[in-house]
Write a structure and sequence with these properties.
about 45% helix, 2 domains, about 350 residues, alpha+beta, Jelly Rolls
Amino acid sequence: MLQTWDSWADISPKYVADRPVLERRTDPLSEVFGSMSIQEAVYMRLEATAPWGVRYLGDTGPRIRFMLVVRGSALLRFKNPLRTFSLSSGDLFIFILSGEPFTLMDHPNSTVVDSKEVRKLAVDGVINYGGGGPLTTLVAGAFGMSTFGAPLISAILPRFLHLRLEQKRSHAFQCVLDLLAAETAQPGIASSRLISCLYESLFVYAIRAYASSSAAPPKGWLAAMSDKHLSKAIEAMHSHVERRWSVKSLAREARMSRSAFALKFRTVLGQTPLEYLTQWRMYQAGAMIRSNHTSFSATASAVGYESESSFSRVFKREMGVAPREYRRKCADLQSSVGE
């Protein structure tokens, strides 16, 4: 939970009349996904014949991992034996910034081999492995993402998504899955680039499907974005982060009374509308500061603060360090990653 503000001056951007915003609109979901910065996309196609089992170690950095069962079936196990998933043909499983180890196998009693050993069998991205019995084909892939975007993604999405074939799936979503399966079966020119694009599309479609499913929780950011009232207020904040929003003006965007809006927003998102607004402003400011092309005063103005000192005070409270120190630390981190 964010702290409350010391005074209105701490959060007060430029004054705007209390009226609904009718200008350009920003899609918050696209904005959030745009912060992912897909890096190092990799994939493999596993043609596994029973009996078989593969153990995967946890990821060391922020990564999103996919697993698509093209044919056959598999058991997905985590360290906790109660967390075992049965995957069938057409199922998609996504690990969202979850670095914990897991095991894939055809049967609980099958011998398990470390994934590093199995990868040595790869030929042109395809691995043939197992005892010669019934075939299971899996397309597994992963991509890294910006260290700076990871906290935002992990805050709004669950750690795992299991999307079964029998769940309602749009034609476009299924087409992306089919393209991914086909491209990994017969790689062609620029396959790695195409697969990276398919990963991004797959991720967005998966989140859409999850948000509209019964499995989606009634609280959280996705729940708010699925709400016809709250989504309008969030959209307005993202579209005009520099405006002097108040609970009253945001309630008007949501077409709700002030009290009803404030209560519903806090119930669903676990924070007040203005706390959310400040959090998003500081995230945007952080991205501008990391670019190293914007002055602190220009950054303050862009996210709605007339006073650089007021902006710096809020930034330090929310981010833990002052803007200048944040820029230095981010530059050091990016430099070390580059090495």
